[in-house]
Design goal:
The chain is α+β, with helices and mostly antiparallel strands. The chain is built from seven helices and five strands. A hairpin with a 7-residue loop joins strand 2 and strand 3.
């Protein structure tokens, strides 16, 4: 406001301006079917099942957040995806954060099937029995994700 960058007289010369005002604006999210969802869980992902699930996620343009991979239990990871490129990389030790370990990932896409994405990601989480096995067992799970070069510090 107050920048002098908007010229109402020039805007009135733009074709369709009166229809836009009369009929109301259709948000791009509705016009193009863009929506979002947030996936949250307090359980870690099983790395192999996560890898398998990722190949089945469709219609996602962008996703971002943090995640917890069972085979790397002490590290909070950043999840960042744009188009076909997904990177899951170490951020910091969970013990150095103010949040509890878990998942919080926002997905943005076209005509997202929220229930299908949620079910797919939930199927990649540790089961009750796996959770009870503990971190030592988790670190032996097959892990198809790229290796992280993390040095341990106390």
């Amino acid at each position: 406001l107050g920048t002098g960058l908007f010229d109402p007289e020039a805007a009135a010369q733009t074709p369709g301006w009166d229809e836009e005002i009369a009929d109301g604006h259709t948000p791009e999210t509705e016009e193009y079917g863009i929506s979002s969802m947030t996936f949250r869980s307090d359980r870690p992902f099983h790395p192999q099942r996560l890898g398998d699930a990722l190949g089945q996620v469709t219609r996602v343009l962008r996703s971002k957040g943090f995640c917890w991979v069972a085979s790397r239990p002490t590290i909070a990871a950043i999840w960042s995806q744009a188009g076909p490129n997904l990177v899951i990389e170490p951020a910091q030790y969970w013990s150095g954060t103010e949040i509890a370990p878990g998942q919080e990932i926002v997905f943005i896409g076209i005509k997202l099937d929220r229930d299908a994405i949620d079910a797919l990601l939930r199927s990649a989480l540790l089961t009750d029995a796996e959770l009870a096995e503990g971190e030592q067992a988790w670190m032996s799970y097959p892990d198809p994700l790229p290796a992280w070069n993390v040095t341990h510090s106390h």
